[in-house]
Amino acid sequence: MNQKPALSVVIPVYNEETGLHLLFDRLYPALDALQIPYEILFINDGSRDRSAALLREQFQLRPEVTRVILFNGNYGQHMAIMAGFEHCRGKRVITLDADLQNPPEEIVNLLAAMNQGHDYVGTIRRTREDSAWRHWASRLMNRLREKVTHIHMTDQGCMLRAYDQRIIQAIVSCREVNTYIPALAYSFSSNPTEIVVGHEERSAGESKYSLYSLIRLNFDLITGFSILPLQFFSLLGMGLSLLSALFVIFLVLRRLIVGPEAEGVFTLFALTFFLIGILLFGIGLLGEYIGRIYQQVRDRPRFLIQGILEAPLPPEESGDA
């Protein structure tokens, strides 16, 4: 690169062999049209297909603006983005999925919003091209997440987002093992905003997010940014203890007044099973927080980089001059 890029585009890649050529054909012209210095960081997240080979070929075609980070295994989308953040050089950073569901041509609109003084730009998909269950599940989880964490993101599933370099530095300084990057950026931002962008069907391949992955992501989001669930179960426990005490008093008085009786045994069983279910759910929730603490205190590397494909820096940037 001849000069420090004004824009870095970070793209995690996992088994996207069938769609990468389409991405290249649309992404580079869209960025060239901006007429600003830019770089693209592809992070190969342990792909098992030919994605790494295709990224290498693309690097050889456009080495002046292309960089490729190769993981030695699969660490997940957010760890791939975090690696991109640690190595990007641009004053502004945009994250983009490799599946072309978010059109690269929308990048100019995110930069226009940043030119208005915003340090973080989220996006809202104009029309959802996902399946019906994912659409409704996403809406439900969005509402729950906003109630619990007080973080306002209209569309948390859209990864097309723009960040100021100051926000990127704050995110990189966090050493959390499990996190949700857009929520982290929102908590650090002083002037966030959201804009509406287009959304298309996947150009090729299948979504890498299963139902379990979506549930896992929202667990990380809720438990990583709020202790409200623990506080809720504390209040619920106190409330149930009070009701249980009142119920015991009621049973004692009924026995003194009515005498021994066999009726109501199955009702007591039902109440017992209900309370045991709440207890087990609360223990599971507590285990979720303890598990996060356990993962954090081990202090293991969040990801391992096998190699980086990039052109050498000019002397004034590498420190040789």
Automatic annotation (TrEMBL):
UniProt KW keywords: Cell membrane, Glycosyltransferase, Lipopolysaccharide biosynthesis, Membrane, Transferase, Transmembrane, Transmembrane helix
PANTHER family from the UniProt entry: UNDECAPRENYL-PHOSPHATE 4-DEOXY-4-FORMAMIDO-L-ARABINOSE TRANSFERASE (PTHR48090:SF3), UNDECAPRENYL-PHOSPHATE 4-DEOXY-4-FORMAMIDO-L-ARABINOSE TRANSFERASE-RELATED (PTHR48090)
Domain of life: Bacteria
InterPro entries: Glyco_trans_2-like, Glycosyltransferase_2, Nucleotide-diphossugar_trans
CDD domains for the chain: DPM1_like_bac
Residues covered by the Glycosyltransferase 2-like domain: 8-169
Gene3D superfamilies: Spore Coat Polysaccharide Biosynthesis Protein SpsA, Chain A
Gene source species: Ferrovum myxofaciens
Ranges that cross the membrane: 232-253, 265-290
Protein name: Glycosyltransferase
Gene Ontology molecular function, alphabetical: undecaprenyl-phosphate 4-deoxy-4-formamido-L-arabinose transferase activity
An annotated GO BP: lipopolysaccharide biosynthetic process
